[in-house]
Amino acid sequence: MTGRAFFGRLGSSMLKRNTIAALAVGIASVGPVSWTDAPVAQTLTDMLAKKTQKANDKKDRLAVESRELVYDKDKNTVSAIGNAQLYYQGRVLEADKVTYDRANNRVYAEGNAKMTEATGQIVYGSKFELTGDFKDGFIDSLRVDTIDKTHFVAPRGERTGGETTVFEHGTYTACDACKDDPSKPPLWQVRAKRIIHKNEERTVYYEDATLEFYGVPIAYVPFFSAPDNTVKRKTGFLAPHYVASSAIGYGVATPFFWALAPNYDLTITPTFLTRQGVLGDVEWRHRLINGSYNVRATGIFQQDPHAFLQPPYGAGDRDFRGAIDSRGKFLLNDKWVWGWDVAASSDKWFYQNYKYRGYANANAISAFSTLGFRETTSTLYLTGQGQRSWFDARAFYFRGLSYADWQKVQPVVHPVIDYDRRFTPSVLGGELTVNANFTSLTRSQTDYQSLVQENGVTPGRYLFPIGYTANGTPISLYDSCAPGQFNPAKCFVRGPAGTYTRLTADVSWRRTFIDPLGESWTPFLSARGDVLFKSPETSGYFNSSLPNFLDTSDDAVFRGMPAVGLTYRYPFVADTSWGTHVIEPIGQIIARPNETQVGKIVNEDSQSLVFDDTNLFETTKFSGYDRTEGGTRANVGAQYTFTMNNGGYVSALFGQSYQVAGRNSYNNPDLTRTGWDSGLDSQRSDFVSRLQIAPTSNIAVTARSRFNESDFALKRVEVQAQATFGSLATSIIYARYAAQPSLGLFTKREGISTSARYDITPNWYVQGSVLIDLSRHAAERFYQVQGYQTSNPVGIGAISLGAGYHDECTTFGIVYQNSSKQTAADGTKERVQTVLLRLELRTLGSASYSYNQTTVTTDGITQ
């Protein structure tokens, strides 16, 4: 039965009122249905074919709903009047009145007309004139809203084949209309003589186009095209970005993206620089079933190498410079993953000089984004995670990017392996843990640190061979020991030359009991074993003095450390009208034999020792595996917590540690002197404290301190505060650390870092940050070591000021940054002033500009 026959059964030109008409009508390409076929035996193939045909028939039929349905037999039309809704092939056409001209197979929709596509895209118009299948036609006062909230508007539009839409004198924007005044122009829009959207190509073409901001034209383009909202990746040019620097000149990068296949692509980015030439940049990305990887290579043949400082402060003697990096990550199964992250460059200064975005993103609009990084770390890893176990194996190669980094003292780690397993069900009612670590590394030159001062200056920086002078005085580069000072009284070793391999295994158990009085008792015990295989390197000028510090006689060293202990807690709780108070005394006792093989087991991973509230009750306060705490030690303290009814809280802790019996490991230094000046190197440790105050969710202050155990002098303090007051968000960090002369740190270190952001409106904001070095003598010492004086050492480490705007369609930001004494970092400047500008128009792309005001200086330096 065809659609014509179905409507013919209505009979006359009568109105059918106040009813809901739900009619299945075949308008287009639906053949007649036979009702006389006799049933026959059906195969499975026949049944599947008929089901498919029925599904297609259902999809191609039209369903109509309206308050009134009018059939005009003379005009051969059917009209749905009053909230008319037509459903066809996933599309929904709505209007006050929809008329179907059966003779011409045309559909007319008038009054609040709206068509929703199967994709979710919505088309509005004052009048629709479409073919019966909705694929062709004209629309007056056209507006198209896509699913990702982009908008096309035109006085008239034409649809062709359901594939192409032409907007005559149209506009395009990704901005929403103003809620208060929809007639106002959006923040930005593209106005064009013709906008052509081709669905099959998934591309939008703009002819005679103008970019407008608030209705004001600012740029004209005769023709351009862009992917539509359904495209995630497509071959073509990406938005350019601009750079400027006194060392490299002005430049523009023009990325070209080549979508070779759905799972791999290539990006080619030449950057044309007025002073240095063309910087080439190629990136390959490949996605596989179980992972993905990328490879990126950058290089340039410099036209003016002398724009940069000469060695050892820069790469002013190089014609070709470049870098290569690669990252990859692959799943072996649901528990195991392996990958890599590697980087290599022609010289230390390439990343900073050319703002290499692989590591220092020149497009980033954030505080201190151009301060860069000081090293690259290449790693190859394998990681596995079970329900209660974890495994990680990694190999590392470190490269320092500062002029003061001597690559030969950097270790190559091959590899470090960690394993942790916690057993369930519980063993003897407690938790049993197995932990293991394997570390192997090689270093070609011994890394020394000087312990000598002359006239308040540490003459430990040493370059071998020297070859450079400042005002007639040799320039020192590397933190090392000067000739004739290679003995433990004047130097210590941060890392010995040679190959060192250590294996550690640790088994521990603990269980917590609560007695009837509410007291908490946690007994614990552990057993640990270590073996170190060492092959020291003693040949060469620096390495020949290594036996003065390290016992090189044994090829293998063994160490064992059993321990048994108990932790006691007794919380006292009081409820008041303001909140809940908890006072909790804590005591801990740990019994162990003395630490053995100190100075024979090389300390590579336990050099960072900070005694504070976070490790007061740790069984060992060393940070790694190369050192372990020995002897009998007691840790005592008290903790107070006040939880307010409004959700705020106050928390405080105060405590001290005691060496009860045996040798104090922290006063028994290894070749790195770890433990001295730590606050733990006496029988009674320094006092440590913590205070946290958060009266509301908008304010939080945390202070950590360490006080001398004899006179309560402040040895270390860190204060961090964060607050939000309406549209203003602020943070400040203050730190002060006393001198540690036993570690070569002869003066205090003190500084403040503060930042703030103020949202002027929901869209506009301003922000700023300041890094202040309060230890101004550090700058003075630097200049004195270099052989020249300064009367005004800089105390401002870095300043950042910025402003920005963001909404649903636009992101804009501008940042000014000023950082100090970058000569020591990248070899091109003493201070650097940077302006970063970025504008992003959603769906159209982004453009950025970076300008560096550099100071290339060689004052007082001769070669």
UniProtKB/TrEMBL annotation:
Q: Which GO terms describe its biological process?
A: Gram-negative-bacterium-type cell outer membrane assembly; lipopolysaccharide transport
* Keywords, comma-separated and alphabetical: Cell outer membrane, Membrane, Signal
Tell me where in this chain the LptD C-terminal domain is found.
Answer: 320-764
Q: Name one GO cellular component term.
A: transporter complex
Pfam families in UniProt:
LptD (PF04453)
Compartment(s) where it occurs, according to its Swiss-Prot or TrEMBL record: Cell outer membrane
The record's function comment reads: Involved in the assembly of lipopolysaccharide (LPS) at the surface of the outer membrane.
Description of how the protein assembles with itself and partners: Component of the lipopolysaccharide transport and assembly complex.
Q: Which family does it belong to?
A: Belongs to the LptD family.
Q: Which protein is depicted?
A: LPS-assembly protein LptD
Please name the source species: Alsobacter metallidurans
> Lineage of the native species?
Bacteria, Pseudomonadati, Pseudomonadota, Alphaproteobacteria, Hyphomicrobiales
